[in-house]
Amino acid sequence: MAVTNAYAVSHAGGRLAPTTIERRELRPDDIRIDIAYAGICHSDIHQAKGEWAGAFFPMVPGHEIAGTVSAVGAAVTKYQVGDRVGVGCMVNSCGECEYCRAGTEQFCVKGNVQTYNAVDYDGTHTYGGYSQQVVVKEAFVCRIPDGIGLDVAAPLLCAGITTYSPLHHWGVGPGKKVAVVGLGGLGHMGVKIAVALGAEVTVLSQSLKKQEDGLRLGAKDYYATGDESTFETLAGRFDVILNTVAAPLPIDSYLSLLRVGGAMVNVGAPPEAMSYNAFSLLGGNKVLAGSMIGGIAETQQMLDFCAEHGVGAEIEVIGADEINAAYDRVENSDVRYRFVIDVSTIAA
Ligand code: NAP
Ligand code: ZN
Question: What spacing in Å lies between the alpha carbon of 271 and ligand 1's midpoint?
Fold first, then answer.
């Protein structure tokens, strides 16, 4: 066992504070990573507050991990000491079920093991990236291509893949009109990736406060959802709507913005239920869908795509003592556009 410094929350809704945790000795197929940067995802906040079912404490959040390999197990073939790597939301799955074999480990029948706040198949609890080191099975590690900084790459491991996967799945590309709802961590990645895929992108934000940024990121249009006329102006316009909002939305209003056959994909995960009227889908053969992260192979594909297109996250790098303040800012929609912890500031 190796002891490593970390930041943990001790009870639901508690504040993050320094602690130490143990990382397992390397198994033959394990990699030890010295973490350089860890992104703060809104999912970390939902879980640290106990807003989703099944939280256990102490919890070390963090599933947007970027760093360098510091040791490899005897059977590791893909990575060497010094390689630049990333870890996202999963660290294990059965590897045998139809979904694992199809490269969609997030839907593993036995249940994928999440990077933190989960019990691994050996009964140990997982702890996430707000820590100096992590030990992860080789199959759940991705390569960060040269040309993307580790700091701007970290958010790709969740925000990047969570937006890339549905945009890809729903055929976003040249000639398609896409709306991204919410310009936060996921939303700004959704805009950048949809633009890189060649689509015409519109941001739907609560207000026009971030309009300049949205247009700089490549969006063609930017509308305030707080303005009722927006829904009349944009009726029937979009092929795909990507909803990244961490709160319930009036689904029927958004469905009215889809073209015939269009799809609204929810990636936001508010704890509250949302409802819709059947006729909002029937009148136009519309699709209301969801999407959860992406498989490991697709995550690698996304990282390679982002490197090729010069796409990284827009980040604000913070010290570990600023995590609690960053959580408050994310909850107030005051993130521009992902907080990334400089892990060298995590002291014992
Ligand atoms: P975030 O950075 O807080 O971004 C969410 C954005 O939604 C905000 O910046 C804000 O943008 C908008 N928003 C917030 N409250 C709103 C409200 N009441 N009404 C309308 N818009 C509102 O969060 P994130 O890290 O991108 O995560 C977003 C959600 O996705 C979270 O629920 C998270 O748990 C979930 N998530 C899901 C997956 C998955 O696999 N499906 C993966 C990661 C995260 P504007 O100010 O521009 O309106
Ligand atoms: Zn996340």
Answer: 12
Scored b (16 or more CB within 10 A) or e, 227-244 reads eeeebeebeebbbbbbbb
The answer to whether 200 touches 334, Cβ cutoff 8 Å, is no
Supply the residue whose CA is at minimum distance from atom 39 of ligand 1.
292
| Residue recorded with tokens 């508690």 | 14
The residue whose CB lies within 8 Å of the most ligand 1 atoms, and thus the one to mutate among 90, 201, 267, is 267
Atom of ligand 1 at shortest range from CA of 186: 26
pTM, entire model: 0.97
Please report, for the chain, the start and end positions of each structural domain, with discontinuous segments joined by +. Answer: 2-157+312-345, 160-290
User: Using one digit for the tens of pLDDT, what is the confidence trace for 116-129?
Assistant: 999 999 999 999 99
Dig out the tokens for 330 from the structure. 């994310």
Q: How far is the CA of 300 from the centre of ligand 2 (A)?
A: 16
Read off the pLDDT band of 54 (50, 70, 90).
Answer: confident
Separation of 327 CA from ligand 1 center, angstroms? 13
Q: Which CATH class is domain 160-290?
A: alpha beta
Q: 299-323 pLDDT, tens per residue? A: 999 999 999 999 999 999 999 999 9
- The fold for domain 2-157+312-345 equals Quinone Oxidoreductase; Chain A, domain 1 (3.90.180)
Burial of 173 (0-12, 13-18, 19+ CB in 10 A): middle
Give the ligand 1 atom nearest the CA of 206.
48
Pocket of ligand 1 from Cβ distances under 6 Å: 41-43, 46, 158, 162, 182-187, 205-206, 210, 244-247, 267-270, 291-293, 330, 333, 335
